[in-house]
Specification:
Bound molecules: NADPH dihydro-nicotinamide-adenine-dinucleotide phosphate
Shape: globular
Protein name: Prostaglandin reductase 1
Number of helices: 8
Family: Belongs to the NADP-dependent oxidoreductase L4BD family.
Pfam family, one: ADH_zinc_N
Largest sheet: 7 strands, mixed
Order of helices and strands: EEEEEEEHEHEHEHEHEHEHEHE
Strand content: 25-35%
Organism: Xiphophorus couchianus
CATH topology of the largest domain: Rossmann fold
Number of domains: 2
Domain Enoyl reductase (ER): 17-304
Length: 306
Amino acid sequence: AKSWTLVKHFDGFPKDGDFQLKVEELPEPNDGEVLLEAVFLSVDPYMRVVQSKNPEFPVGSHVVSNSGWRSHSVSDGTDLTPIMADWPSDVSLSLALGSIGMPGLTALYGIEEVLGLQQNETLLVNAAAGAVGNVVGQIAKIKGCKVVGSAGSDAKVAYLKELGFDEAFNYKTVPSLEEALKNAAPEGYDCFFENVGGYFSTVALPQMKTFGRIAVCGSISTYNDGTPQTGPYPHMTMIVKQLKMEGFTQNRWQHKNPESLKRMIGWLQEGKLKCREHITEGFENMPAAFMGLLRGDNIGKAVVAV
Ligand code: NDP
């Protein structure tokens, strides 16, 4: 089996030397265990069972596991989630790591459970061309909302327009983020699906309508900070605008996953949900794919095909 190990904690942005590729012999599976082989990898790999001494996971079944950046691993099954039994044959299984998997569910639960988004409301989403963000915008369109998205390249902005976003802009090239947010929705935002944090969030909060709602999903602009950011805290804006802000992780609604995934596959098959992926070929390229994600190279979910 091959595996990628973190040899040194990142000091700022990750570097090639922070990762090491190892090769090791795995033990034969014991009773109740299965041997997994990676097919697509991301931070939440999707594997197929190649040897099984566990009747719940016959050879050839497909599962999502959290076994790390590994080509093979042995599992007793407790950390495995089987892919839906009736997964349509014309839908790529890699989407189980993206729009029809954890990132897609994150988008759905953020919208339905946290924001309670209603028809005709105006929604803002950042990192909008990413795995979570693009699904957020598409679900908001399905719900009859006005959607504004920001992303870090002109190609991403063009893709968002293709997906039906009402307004989209490149936050790296607009002369003023504040003006761009105002121009896209002069009426203000009812809802904000927050993936980025930091400066973006400081500028976006004053653009909310009174009683606006904010779902805090991620803070990717701060993940490589050597020291945690301190302020400015948006307390005054929160008070004056009487905003409601809630952080969440998608596993809070895990019990709803089977029904939610069915709904999302339905939207996919009706053509209401488009799924683009950013696929890197080869297990050896895992660190490069990961660093590319942090640089913003991906449109849609970033996966590695093993
Ligand atoms: P993406 O596919 O969106 O990839 C990350 C994107 O973030 C990049 O493509 C880049 O796009 C953008 N980005 C990177 N650095 C910065 C920066 N400094 N400032 C602004 N944008 C940046 O990743 P995911 O969809 O998987 O994740 C999106 C967010 O959701 C993350 O914050 C993640 O941690 C969070 N998340 C939370 C979950 C939960 O349960 N709460 C579950 C899953 C994800 P661009 O070119 O636009 O800059």
